[in-house]
Design a protein that fits this description.
By secondary structure, this protein is α+β, with helices and mostly antiparallel strands. Helices cover 16% and strands 33% of the residues. It is built from 4 helices and 14 strands. The strands form 3 sheets. It has a 6-stranded antiparallel β-sheet. β10 and β11 form a beta hairpin. The model has no long low-confidence stretch (mean pLDDT 93).
Length: 244
């Protein structure tokens, strides 16, 4: 049975310079924007830390972002001040987000790598889609870890959410420097757990030492940004075993 839990939210950028505006703020190259294919992307702050991540799709004058619902206020706060000088406006998506494993109709939008499509309609399938994102190693940044990690630390470069050939965007200098100098010492790792799940934002512990942070949780699998050591660990008392 489809879940009515709402993990994800949509944001519309509407106006003659919508994609041009976002090109200066998102990590993805909006020249590759398509109306029926989700383009992985992230929004960073000026320090290169990911405020949000998800997908963009649409047309040059109407771009829709799909992100974690908990970071919508942060996106408004980060981009709202710059939109004052743009010819576009930011608005919530009217209606819900319906995720399914089969495309239905001509308006279905594919999210490559997850096996899911987005359809207009009531909010459905959010739990299942969230699990698919974790299985695919795609961290959809939620509030507890927003503005904490460089994209490389949470695997966003691995899922194609960051372009290193496009022009400047907010935080680009920091992200590019870390990539080219190889300065990122923490990276995304997969852990399996049984029973009660850990929570996004939980510390990953080995004995009494903190070695990382839980960044996404699915059905029996958690993603965490950790140091190179992948020995057995815990998060809020939950035993984690490396699945890498």
């Amino acid at each position: 049975m489809a879940s009515a839990v709402k993990h994800f939210a949509g944001l519309d950028f509407i106006g003659p310079d919508a994609s041009t505006f976002l090109q200066g703020y998102l990590t993805a190259d909006l020249d590759a924007l398509q109306p029926r294919n989700g383009l992985p992307m992230a929004l960073c702050n000026i320090k290169g830390r990911a405020v949000a991540s998800g997908w963009a799709f649409g047309e040059p004058d109407h771009v829709r972002l799909v992100v974690h619902a908990s970071v919508v206020p942060d996106i408004h706060g980060e981009l709202g001040k710059y939109l004052l000088f743009a010819k576009s406006k930011l608005a919530p998506v009217e209606g819900g987000l319906h995720f399914a494993q089969e495309p239905v109709g001509q308006e279905a939008v594919a999210f490559p790598g997850t096996g899911y499509w987005l359809h207009p309609g009531a909010d459905e399938g959010h739990d299942n889609f969230a699990n698919a994102c974790v299985e695919a190693g795609f961290v959809v940044v939620a509030k507890p870890v927003s503005q904490t990690f460089l994209p490389q630390m949470i695997g966003l470069t691995d899922v194609g959410a960051v372009s290193f050939s496009k022009g400047c965007y907010l935080g680009q200098e920091v992200v590019a420097r870390a990539q080219h100098r190889g300065e990122v010492k923490r990276k995304l790792r997969r852990y399996r757990f049984d029973g009660r799940p850990p929570v996004v934002g939980d510390d990953v512990m080995q004995d009494t030492a903190k070695v990382g942070t839980i960044t996404a949780v699915g059905a029996g699998i958690a993603l965490a940004c950790t140091r190179s050591d992948t020995a057995p660990a815990t998060a809020s008392g939950v035993s984690l075993v490396s699945a890498d």
